[in-house]
Write a structure and sequence with these properties.
It is a single chain. Helices cover 35% and strands 11% of the residues. It is α/β, with parallel strands linked by helices. It starts with 24 loop residues before the first strand and ends with a helix. The protein has a 4-stranded parallel β-sheet with strand order 2-1-3-4, with helices on both faces. The structure holds 4-nitrophenyl phosphate (4NP). 4-nitrophenyl phosphate (4NP) binds next to loops.
């Protein structure tokens, strides 16, 4: 089946090509501490891929640019909002993003512009030598994002409502990312 040019489900953001044929497509979701936003991104995106039957084809991990929380579970407020919406938050352990991930992942998604800048500084090679779009903002895929509104705001120093808002942005964006894989599979 070929995807139609007027298919309203088509994401306007193209997925970068897989680095290596025959391997799972690998996505890294990256924030600052890897205890709030990117773990929520990892859990929600993995859950939606699983429900779409794509768990074997697409792998998702998360990391932080900082090392303060390495080895720790996610923030209890992040775990709370995930559990309240039926997701399992209990397997997370924080990791730090490493330069080598530029070579090991097909798509690296930053939660805010500062994360994106920090990740860029860790790129071991010229950005232009990568597959176009390998590093971009998570919310580039958000169908409700406006120009200049691509950040998932850091909820760490705020209250619980910040985590509800992160989950809502992540859920609709993750659905759009999964849809991009479904449309791509149908077009093959
Ligand atoms: P995250 O939130 O980047 O969404 O995981 C933060 C977690 C911890 C800190 C900052 C942001 N911190 O400064 O420890």
């Amino acid at each position: 089946m070929t995807a139609r040019a007027d298919d309203s489900r088509l994401s306007t953001v193209a997925l970068p090509r897989r680095r290596e044929a025959g391997t799972p497509y690998r996505i890294a979701v990256v924030c600052l501490g890897n205890i709030c936003r990117s773990p929520i991104g990892e859990v929600v995106l993995s859950d939606k891929l699983d429900r779409a039957g794509l768990a074997d084809e697409v792998e998702v991990v998360s990391a932080g640019t900082g090392d303060w929380h390495v080895g720790k579970p996610m923030d209890r407020r992040a775990a709370g909002v995930l559990a309240a919406h039926g997701y399992d938050p209990d397997h997370h352990r924080a990791k730090q993003f490493e330069s080598s991930w530029f070579d090991g992942y097909d798509l690296i998604l930053a939660m805010d512009a500062a994360n994106l800048r920090e990740i860029s500084t860790l790129d071991p090679v010229e950005e232009s030598t990568h597959e176009p779009g390998r590093l971009r903002m998570f919310r580039d895929f958000d169908p409700a994002a406006e120009d200049g509104d691509r950040d998932i705001p850091d909820p760490y120093f705020g209250g619980n409502e910040g985590f509800d808002s992160v989950l809502a942005m992540v859920e609709r964006t993750a659905s759009a990312i999964v849809e991009s894989f479904v449309v791509r599979a149908e077009a093959r």
